[in-house]
Each structure stands twice: as C-alpha cells, then as structure tokens.
Q: What sequence folds into this?
C-alpha cells in the first residue's frame, strides 16, 4: 500500500531539485502517492500572507507528511515566514539535522565527523512577539517551557539510544539566562538520569559552538534551543562541504515535514546546476519515517556511490577529486543508474528499528512542581524622558500596599545609587510593603492607576510571584 504525502515544489531552485528527487524515488519504487500543493512566492502575492493556501493546509491535514522544497520569503510588509507558520501550526517540535563529513570523497577542513543536531523548534525567541516599547527601545519575548524542554531533551536521548550513539551534548546560555535557559539545562540533566548508558555533557553555547566548529569529531548528538540550533546547524552543514548536502526533518506528534537545509538560491535558479542532495537526504529520512527503510537505504547507498564515483554538481566539483561536473538532472540520472550498488568508501545508512514515526509519540511527563503561587509584587516599565526624578515615584508609594525597592535601566540597577537612566525607559520593582499582607491583582491595578494619575507613562507590566516561596523572577 502506498503512503500519501504532500509535495511542495517551492521557489527558485525548488522545482528542479524536487523533480530530480521525485525521479529517484520513482525509480527506487518508493511506495508513495503524491499530492502536489503550491506554496511560496506566488501564494504570498495572492491573499495568503503565510505563503500557503487553505487547500494547501487541507492536503497536509490529510496526508500528515510534507516533503518541501525551499521557498523565497518576500521582503516587505505583511509577509510572514512560511517555515515558522508550518512549524508552529503543525506543532513540529523537533528539528533533526544530521551533518556528516564525506571525507575523502568531498573536501572539507576535517577528516571525520558525524553530528546530529536536534533543535527545539517551537519556542525561544521565535515567538514573533516583538514590541516597540518607547522611541528608543524594542523587545522580543523569549518563551521556554519546562514541558517543551523535557520533550526535546527526551527526543534527543531516545534518538541517541536507538541509533547507538554514545554521547549527547546540551548547549544553553544559562550563566546569563538563568530562568529560561536554566529550565532547559535542568530538563536535560533530569532526563539524562534515565539514560545512564549515554554520556551527557553541557557547554555554555558560545564556547560549545566554537568547539563544534573547530573539533567536530568530538561531538555526537547535540540538543539545544531554537536560536542556538538555527545558528549551529548552518555552521556545521557548511563545514561538511556544501550547504547543498544537508537535509532536515521536522517532527511533531501528528505531522512531519522534510526539507533541505538551504534556501531557494535564486542566484542559480532555472540553470540546472543546483545540487539536489539536501532534499534527497530529507526524502531519505521521510522514507524511514514512513517505514520504508529498505527504499531509504537503496537511495542513500546509490547517492553515496554517485559521490564516490566523482560525479559532482558545481558546488562540490573540485578538479583534483571530481571526475565529472554534472547538472541537477544528470546527477539524479547518475543516482538512478547506481540504484542497487553499495558505497565502498563512505559508510552506509545506519537504520535502527523503531526510529520511524514511533519517535514522534514522545511526550514529556510534565508534573506541576509547586503547590501555591503567591503574588508579591510587580515590575513596571515606564517611558522615561528624565523630567521627573526617581525619588518622586518612591515617595508616591511610600505608604501604599506596594513600594519601590529598585529601579533598573536595561537590567542595570540605577536606583538606589545613581539617579539617571541611560535609556528612555526604566523598570521599577514594586514589592509588598508589609510582608504579612496578602496582595491581589487589585493592588497592582491600583498601582497602575496611581502612576497614570501622576503622569507616569506605563509601557509594560510584569507580575512577581513566589512558587512555594521560591522566586519566579530574576534580575
Ligand atoms: P540560500 O541557501 O538560498 O543560498 C545561499 C548560497 O548557497 C547561494 O550562493 C546559493 O547559490 C547556494 N546554494 C544554496 N542551495 C544550493 C544547492 N542546493 N546547490 C548549490 N548551491 C546552493 O540562502 P539565501 O540566499 O540566504 O536565501 C534565499 C531565499 O531562500 C530567501 O528568500 C530566504 O528567505 C529563503 N530561505 C528559505 C528556506 C526554506 O524554505 N527552508 C531556508 C533558508 C532560506
């Protein structure tokens, strides 16, 4: 029985690489039935600002699997990222990007490495919640959940276990972002205890990425947050010889999307020179996902054999190592000719049982970790033109239920101590005046009204809570 999949040809080099990949899948007798949808530039220019039409969504709803070519994100007002929309709407929480060295067949600076980057795909600074607070200042909201962190870390450990990987590295910046990145790191440490056979380590992301870029052979599976993973995976993909080689899987509990790592490359579109390997690798992972591992192996081996025989597209062609420079179509034909042949230099695909769609069922065993949540104050951000002084605010609330204990500018405490802000906004920390008194939302509302009555310009408000006496805020 064939598995229905939705296919999107995308923009730029998208149609030519998709045609090449589908021709290989057809000849390899992949049991798939294809439903083609339109996405990208043409759709953006119609009325759908996300670059996908309602019938496109319907097709994905039906098949639950999308093989996608890259799309061009038009510059300008009102256009939203199609990829971000797909990941969020389809709840594709895990992005898996294997990055392998094909040395000595393909030139790269390192002999050997085989890294799998597992990136959280729905949270972090990609919320799209950005605001202009004042004339000078802007903010972007970073959301990290304990359940999302546990789920992606568990996915990482399960992946490592099922693929017989020895080590998993977590990258965060929890020395600075103690609550958000701290939550991710804590989730990693607690899940690691359930997998004693897999070595678990953590690096601060800056030194971690520097090490991956200079000694990739020392890394195995990496699990990290959305933004760090985004940056890291392009660095590692490029390290393997060409951005045109890597494919990625985006996995959720109901849907999955497979695509190349690179973009629509408009500079080389419609010239029959693009490398279809990234999308082909994504398709190989799709075949594993739909339980057609035998076809996946057949295609992957033929692809490796083609690279080994020196048949290379322009991005990989080097006079010393390559034998024949070919176009997109001819490369696909060479892979088809090699179906059934085994690579002799490069390692074949390792497929472990149960790595298919079963992995997507991973859940976090999220449990509430507190009994009582108590409101103890509020951080209130004011637009600040310097015409008032801080003592005025402090004095105003001296006898209220909430009093000012500190004033910050861009996170730096400027009162008590200094009395000037270097920016056009300040954040006042109000806490309960009498610790024995219980405050409610009405006290915070009264605070906001009093500030407004006294002509202070509130641009933002955050509440301060204790979770079973443990602070739920930081500064
Ligand atoms: P890009 O990846 O398209 O191109 C970067 C460079 O790599 C270019 O020189 C290009 O010619 C080359 N390249 C890329 N893929 C190649 C391939 N398969 N074979 C040979 N060479 C290849 O990145 P960009 O130029 O920054 O982005 C172009 C467009 O793609 C933008 O509109 C961007 O928003 C979009 N984009 C889409 C996706 C996606 O749909 N998943 C991802 C990244 C970028």
A:
């Amino acid at each position: 029985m064939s598995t229905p999949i939705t296919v999107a040809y995308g923009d730029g080099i998208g149609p030519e690489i998709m045609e090449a990949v589908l021709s290989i899948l057809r000849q390899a007798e992949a049991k798939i039935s294809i439903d083609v949808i339109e996405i990208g530039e043409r759709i953006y220019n119609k009325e759908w600002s996300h670059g996908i039409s309602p019938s496109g969504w319907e097709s994905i709803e039906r098949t639950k699997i999308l093989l996608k070519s890259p799309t061009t994100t038009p510059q300008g007002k009102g256009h939203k990222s199609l990829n971000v929309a797909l990941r969020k709407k389809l709840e594709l929480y895990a992005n898996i990007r294997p990055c392998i060295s094909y040395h000595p067949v393909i030139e790269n600076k390192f002999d050997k490495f085989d890294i799998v980057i597992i990136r959280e795909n729905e949270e972090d600074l990609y919320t799209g919640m950005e605001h202009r607070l004042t004339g000078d200042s802007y903010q972007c909201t970073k959301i990290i959940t304990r359940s999302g962190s546990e789920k992606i870390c568990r996915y990482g450990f399960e992946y490592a276990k099922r693929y017989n990987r020895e080590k998993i590295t977590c990258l965060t910046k929890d020395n600075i972002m103690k609550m958000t990145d701290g939550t991710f790191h804590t989730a990693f440490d607690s899940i690691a205890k359930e997998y004693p056979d897999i070595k678990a380590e953590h690096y601060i992301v800056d030194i971690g990425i520097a090490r991956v870029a200079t000694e990739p052979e020392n890394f195995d599976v990496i699990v990290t947050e959305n933004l760090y993973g985004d940056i890291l995976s392009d660095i590692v993909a490029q390290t393997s010889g060409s951005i045109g080689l890597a494919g990625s899987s985006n996995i959720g509990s109901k849907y999955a999307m497979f695509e190349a790592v690179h973009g629509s490359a408009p500079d080389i579109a419609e010239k029959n020179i693009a490398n279809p390997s990234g999308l082909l690798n994504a398709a190989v992972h799709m075949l594993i996902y739909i339980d057609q591992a035998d076809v996946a192996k057949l295609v992957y081996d033929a692809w490796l054999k083609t690279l080994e025989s020196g048949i290379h597209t322009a991005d990989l062609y080097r006079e010393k190592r390559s034998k024949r420079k070919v176009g997109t179509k001819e490369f696909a034909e060479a892979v088809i000719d090699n179906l059934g042949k085994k690579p002799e230099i490069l390692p074949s695909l390792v497929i472990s049982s149960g790595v298919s769609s079963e992995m997507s069922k991973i859940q976090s065993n999220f449990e509430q970790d507190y009994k009582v949540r108590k409101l103890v104050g509020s951080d209130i951000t004011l637009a600040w033109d310097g015409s008032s002084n801080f003592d005025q605010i402090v004095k105003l609330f001296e006898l209220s239920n909430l009093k000012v204990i500190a004033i910050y500018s861009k996170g730096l405490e400027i009162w008590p101590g200094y009395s000037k802000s270097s920016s056009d906004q300040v954040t006042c920390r109000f806490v309960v005046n009498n610790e024995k008194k219980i405050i409610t939302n009405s006290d915070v509302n009264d605070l906001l009204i009093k500030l407004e009555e006294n002509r202070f310009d509130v641009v933002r408000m955050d509440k301060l809570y204790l979770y079973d006496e443990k602070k739920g805020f930081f500064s």
Summary: The radius of gyration is 26 Å. The longest helix spans residues 146-162.
